[in-house]
Amino acid sequence: QTGAFTFDPGYTSTASCESKITFIDGDEGMLLHRGYPIDELADNGDFLEVCYLLLYGELPTKAEKADFDYRVTNHTMVHEQMNRFFTGFRRDAHPMAVMCGVVGAMSAFYHDSTDITDPRQRMIASLRMIAKMPTIAAMAYKYHIGQPFVYPKNDLDYASNFLRMCFSVPCEAYEVNTVLARAMDKIFILHADHEQNASTSTVRLAGSSGANPFACIAAGIACLWGPAHGGANEAALNMLAEIGTVDRIPEFIDRAKDKNDPFRLMGFGHRVYKNYDPRAKIMQKTCHEVLKEVGNEDDELLNVALELEKIALTDEYFIEKKLYPNVDFYSGITLKALGFPQEMFTVLFAVARTVGWIAQWKEMIEDPNQRIGRPRQLYTGAEKREFVPIDRRG
Ligand code: SDX
């Protein structure tokens, strides 16, 4: 009988927080950023416009948007010495490991934007993170495949710049496909922020001690990497490939329902959504657009995914447990069609989620009542007892 412990009912978790940034109604399958529905932002805005909204609370005027785009664009290059961090990794290192290392190393580079008590430095750190993440992600990809780094080109929009840094090579002309760039931009919007998910809570907790903002973002990247969180897009694609054909779906549905089988339908279920993840609907539409543009409309993985969704949504287990596709279910197929290897999928999630992490970190730092996070516990260990010298321990 371990010790009895009376849980102090007066204790309130310091892990919970108030925020004005994102609202999720899990039962309705609703996601709002500063009050704007995600589908309206994805259909009508661009990613930097959503970044501005998340950071400052309002959609920008034309002048504000032009100024914000200009400021972000002029931070897209990384310090040339940062290239050396990449060469310390094996070529076959997972790009998320590289992202953790290189973004963490930014805390050693950009001293003029790490004093979190200085609003100007906080703003520069925010702009640097949003601007440099695509460059660092593209460098991680190029290093991974053994190609030379490609510098950002500031006459391109955010998504086009990223695709060019990933897929162009010095020896050939490269023209951005505007349909694919628009799809990439939309995918960034869908992943920008999502209330107090695990990685955002990690960034808030790390930031609550006053830690270096770049190091806090590196902590968020580490958390996002997990297959239960941002790593699910890579895991979902592996699952669809393992299922392979539509006729093997029932076998996997049974495994997902089997308590003794650790198999989970990756890309399904959500701690908050007990209805369809609104981002999954937009991602499915974007997936069709990308597959059509690359001439692979009849993609077998998409056929498996569509049939799996159809079967699962009529199965009483999934209905009873309110398990629906989440943002990761269709994203892997889409990103693969865009030309990315699956080990880059979570990196792309991190590029997009950086603005959410930064916006939530900024909101916390600027709260005059902000205190260090200190989640408590329900102790279920041994009661107080006396030490027993080793020669008397039998
Ligand atoms: C993201 O928090 C966020 O907002 C995250 C995110 C974001 O934008 O930041 O939305 C991004 O991480 C999306 C989720 C990606 N992960 C996956 O797709 C991995 C597969 N999903 C599961 O691992 C699971 O659904 C979680 C991790 C997402 C949620 O886990 P929970 O909180 O345990 O889910 P739950 O409490 O709603 O589960 C209810 C029941 C449980 O069974 P019982 O204990 O009641 O018997 O449903 C079961 C779960 O075991 N269940 C599943 C399942 N997901 C939950 N059974 C089969 N397949 C699944 N995918």
Number of helices in the DSSP assignment: 17
* Number of beta-strand segments: 3
Query: How much of the sequence is in beta strands?
Result: under 5%
Helix content: 40-55%
Radius of gyration: 23 Å
For the largest beta sheet, what order do the strands appear in spatially? 1-2-3
Biggest sheet descriptor: 3 strands, antiparallel
Question: What does this 3D model show about the protein?
Answer:
Pfam families: Citrate_synt (PF00285). One of its GO terms (molecular function) is citrate synthase activity. The protein is mainly alpha-helical. The chain is built from 17 helices and 3 strands. The protein has helices at 38-44, 47-56, 62-73, 83-87, 95-105, 119-145, 158-167, 178-190, 198-207, 213-224, 232-243, 249-257, 278-293, 300-312, 316-320, 328-338, 345-365, and strands at residues 22-25, 30-33, 36-37. α6 (119-145) packs parallel to α7 (158-167) and α13 packs parallel to α16 (328-338). The longest helix is centred in the middle third of the chain and has 27 residues, at 119-145. The protein is globular and about 70 Å long. The chain starts with 21 loop residues before the first strand and ends in a 29-residue tail after the last helix. The structure holds s-citryldethia Coenzyme A. Residues 194, 197-198, 228-229, 232, 256, 264-272, 321, 323, 326-328 line the site of s-citryldethia Coenzyme A. S-citryldethia Coenzyme A binds next to loops.
